[in-house]
Amino acid sequence: MSTSADRAAAVRALLRTERGAFASRLLGRAAPGVRARVLEVLRWQRRIDETLAGQLDRPLDRLDPEVRAVLRLGLAEAETMGVPPAVAVDGAVHLVRRLGKGSAAGLVNAVLRRAVRSWDALDRDGGPPDLVLSHPAWLWRRWLARFGLEAVASMRADQTPAPVWAWWLDEDALEELKGQNAWVKPHPWCPGAWTAPGPVLPREAAAGRAYIQDPASQLAAHLAASFAGGERATLAALCAAPGGKVALAARHARWARLVAGDLHPGRARHLAFLLGRVTDAPVAVWDAARPP
Questions:
Q1: Does 124 reside within a domain?
Q2: Do 45 and 37 contact (CB within 8 A), yes or no?
Q3: Residue 280 counted as domain residue
Q4: Residue 233 has what DSSP assignment?
Q5: Residue 258 in contact with residue 250, Cβ under 8 Å?
């Protein structure tokens, strides 16, 4: 898919999530560029909305849903995905026209240009850390109560990395990028997770060389892999699609038996394709409440 097609598909998915759909279901077979954009908007939506609201003369929820989604995506691209702001703004203007909302093109252009300039104001002005990092307020309060201010402050410092992370299906491709002096950087605490600027990771993922996945999700796979080894080591991934965690667990450990499945046939096919890149483990269509 082209970048413009990825953007349009991402906006359609965001519209559905706003109506209550689960992103994990919508993105099961999505192109990597679509998946990265949707997850990035959802991850940063609280801060994105706060920044956009300060540049509008009406409440954000009074905008047409398509315009609201385009604004969110444009700001995410410019501020958390490494896309040059001018490119992100221009892409958003073209996208809102493509979606049949051409009358809003001027608003999108003006609001995004102002929002890009004001994004860092929360950091400069000492905004609430839960808002700066786009965390739910209730979660931040719980962290403070459980871990204390010092630990949470350290956690804050660890949660401002480059936004898109991936693990590699093709390690040679990673080495090739390093040899080309591409700016690739390992994650500070998640083994095997790497980031790169702009469109590098979506491009590598689209070519099947990398898999975009949040470091927290990758850690679940590493934890599972730590239990592998021995003649009886078994991994059963009951709701496994789209397959990133179970494929990573299979890549990093030897399992005496590994089975994976999903309730929906379409998602199971996607799971089988990804898992087949790293192992010949069987994939089934099943109900996790009544696995075979």
A1: no
A2: no
A3: yes
A4: -
A5: yes
Helix (H, G, I), strand (E, B) or coil at 230: coil
What is the distance between the alpha carbons of residues 252 and 249, in angstroms, rounded to a whole number? 5
Are 40 and 98 within one domain? yes
pTM given for the model: 0.65
What's the CATH code of the domain at 269?
3.40.50.720
Question: How far is the C-alpha of 161 from the C-alpha of 23, rounded, in Å?
Answer: 23
User: Among residues 174, 196, 212, which one ends one of the domains?
Assistant: 212
By residue count, the chain amounts to 292
Q: Please give the chain's pLDDT, 292 residues, in tens.
A: 688 899 999 999 999 999 988 887 788 678 878 988 998 999 899 999 999 999 999 999 999 999 999 999 999 999 988 899 999 999 999 999 999 999 999 999 999 999 999 998 887 777 888 888 888 888 888 988 988 877 776 666 555 544 578 889 888 988 888 887 667 888 888 999 998 876 788 778 878 888 888 888 899 999 999 888 777 889 888 888 888 999 999 998 889 889 899 888 888 888 898 899 999 999 989 887 887 6
Say if residue 104 is in the same domain as residue 15: yes
Q: How far apart are CA 42 and CA 76, in angstroms?
A: 9
For residues 135 and 49, state if they share a domain.
Answer: no
Cis? peptide before 128, omega within 30° of 0: no
